Amino acid sequence: MIIMDREQSYFMVTQNDHAKVAGKIARNCKDDYFFDLTRTQEVQLAIQEHDRGWIDLDKFPVWNDKTKKPYSFIDYPIMLKISFYKKGLNEVEKMSKYAGLLCSLHYSSFIQDATQPTVREFWNEEKQRQEQLLKELQIVGDEKKNETLMYHLDLLKFCDYLSLYICLNEPGNNKRIHPFFRNGFPQLFPFVTDKPIVAHWKNQETVSLSFSPLKSEFEVKLPYRAVRKDQIEEHGILQAYKDTPVTIRRIKVK
After folding, report:
1. The model's pTM
2. What are the DSSP calls for the chain, one per residue?
3. What does the pLDDT average to over 209-236?
């Protein structure tokens, strides 16, 4: 779950809904920026489905007694996340081996420095998955294909970050920006002369980029629930979440 803490409520977005927004961003990127056009649809699939392991987890939000807030994707118990990461990655690989490889690389990058035995085991299993898929896709030993793969991974991460920017920042407020984005997006692309892409709110309905790989302005629809804190206190996080209606936020990206 992606969560933004407000004064009287928690702004809550499921990971899968966030990923669908990332997928729409990917589908609106210029064709030239995919480089290998034979992989475009698989890259778009990876971006749209990269968080499908969270689908079941997000049906039942959990309260963190330590922080006195709902668990978010940032602090969710890692051991529980791992089993659902595996499930999601297996499902994506069945849809497309190339998409599965990209998603595996994406998740491995989060935990490569982890020391817990269970997490290291997951990382080792994913390295084995990656090695097998690299062989099956005939990427091993092909420098150009490997460079394209790494570029596609950065494209996945860029679309992920832009969607997260929309989820984690209040529309129109450029003074209070989530720490993830204060120095721009970390992905560097040759088409922007290796400078970070910076996002900002042009107004309450529009996000603007310092450099855009997008075809043109388009609109995304972000489903969310504004779960009131007093309702959580009275009924608990799960019931308060279920009782809160889904609202759609419409944001233009340009």
Report:
1. 0.94
2. -EEEE-SSEEEEE-HHHHHHHHHHHHHTB-GGGGSSGGGHHHHHHHHHHTTGGGTTGGGS--EETTTTEE--TTTS-HHHHHHHHHHHHHHHHHH-HHHHHHHHHHHHHHHTT--SHHHHHHHHHHHHHHHHHHHHTT-TT-HHHHHHHHHHHHHHHHHHHHHHHHHHS-TT--SS--GGGTT--S---GGGTT----EEEEETTEEEESS--BSS-EEEEEEEEEEEHHHHHHH-HHHHHHHSPPEEEEEEE-
3. 95
